[in-house]
Design a protein that fits this description.
Layout lengths: L9 E7 L8 E6 L2 E7 L2 E2 L9 E4 L2 H4 L5 E5 L5 H4 L2 H8 L3 E3 L1 H14 L9 E3 L5 E4 L2 E7 L8 E7 L2 E5 L17 H10 L1 E7 L12 H13 L5 E4 L5 H13 L3 E5 L1 H12 L10 E2 L11 E5 L9 H6 L13 E4 L8 H13 L3 E3 L14 H11 L1 E7 L3 H13 L4 E2 L6 E6 L4 E5 L4 E4 L4 E3 L3 H12 L1 E8 L10 E5 L7 H17 L3 H4 L2 H20 L4 E8 L1
Parallel strand pairs: 3-6, 6-7, 7-8, 12-13, 13-20, 14-17, 14-18, 15-16, 15-17, 18-19, 20-21, 26-28
Antiparallel strand pairs: 1-2, 1-22, 2-3, 4-5, 5-24, 9-10, 10-11, 11-12, 22-23, 24-25, 26-27
Helix pairs in contact: 4-8, 5-11, 6-7, 14-16
Amino acid sequence: MTAKSRKDELHFLPLGGSGEIGMNANLYRYAGKWLMVDLGITFADGTLPGIDIIMPDLAFIEKQRSALVGLVLTHAHEDHLGAVQYLWPRLRCPVYATPFAAALLRRKLADDAADGLEDLELIEVSLSSTFKIGPFEIELVSLTHSIPEPNAVIIRTGAGVVVHTGDWKIDPHPLVGGTTDEEALRRLGDEGVLAMVCDSTNALKPGTSGSEAEVRASLEALVRGCLGRVAVTTFASNVARMLTMHHVARANGRSIALVGRSLWRIHDAARETGYIPKGVRFLTDKEANDLPADKVLYACTGCQGEANAQLSRIAGGSHPYVTLGAGDTVIFSSKIIPGNERAIYGLINRLLDLEVDVLTEEDHFVHVSGHPARDELSLMYQWVRPRIAVPVHGEMRHMRAHATLARGLQVPEAVVIENGALLRLAPGPAEIVDWVPAGRLAWNGTRTIAIDGAVVRDRRKLMRGGAAFVALVVDGHGDLLADPAISAYGLFEDGEADEHLDAAGAGVRRAIEGLRPKERRDDDVIREAARQAVRRSLRAARDKRPIIEVTVTRV
């Protein structure tokens, strides 16, 4: 990357969240300083064995962290703040968040944090506030989304004003929090906006995203027709949906229980910040255990089919308090996120095997998105009227559709970029002027590891080809003192391994005996000869290339 920039230049640099949905991490540079907006995670799929959480690689900004003046969180979703607890020690800058995001982040830091967070400076800022971070003047503008306190971050610099929307929609009846601050957005448009960096998730969807109030009415009617136990699963962070489930339960003569730690974490943060009224009470799963079937509604984690979530435990019969069967109903009050179909449909099929009735967005009105459809995007552009549109938070197809829409709305410039693209916003026309590394990291239980590093690479090899282990005992001349001991994993069914491993062992013996005397005195040469012999034998037997480890003990 270019080592220096002019003091009057304003740059935008995404390290995550552009060309993908999730893992948002965005940087702005002005007057020699950097400002980060959001630091989130995404979730792994089956291509990364043993990995659940993926985060942006911050190596670029780590090298310049002395110039990083702060991190502003737009809202409390995992794909916007979930990486703070893992990656903040690499940044060591102040973190700014509104009350609900701050309350949730404190709980995450206490429950799941990595080491090195003792000095984290979390600065709580009020809604609609203004404050200064280095050369950046910040204003927060309240929007609506599927979580309390979504904020557009207005970034004022000497080079111009940027509106960074974060996640948003236009919900006239959000049920929790206020409506979108249209007056503030129109005022910004009148003031003059250089660029809007904007959510693209639903840029292909016509119309509007719908209102939480409409979902409440639909769920109330659906539950009215249920006779047995009802379990509703949704995104844990959706406080409005949590309160809707409470309302729906009471309207139908039921008590509601929260089932899942993440639901309780959101509940506690929402109660602390006043989003759950004092008179609203939720039972634990244990407290609801003895209620009649037609008097209980369970709110459960697991709407994306997560194996370790509570609905999966219930479907597998391993939950200590909640059981479901014939006559009961499960409602997936959530979107089927692309990429999660296999896990979700597998969970649905397990529930159907229990003779549970299952309702989803495919056949009932049970969910609305938290992201703007095309009509909402159009309205936002009419209010803000930026000179430059920068689509983010979407796959390439979403961002290109967003850019086309913006151009059709007479936005002079619309730039589609990817993670790692350094975009100069001012002065002059918007232009990609450089590229920086923008990789991914994985959380491996206690530390971060590289997605393309040895740990993940070896796990993938194990998935594809299995593994074999060879133990050799030789004397000082390199002559075998015992038959090679070979074990294999992921290659043979029970009872069929002995024949193939004996053949592999014979091949190892021939390979070692075929070495010259000088070669047999070299452990590395013996190891490689044995490895190649086992590879040839197992390839012939199973057409696989397993990981092969050879140990040589010289007596």
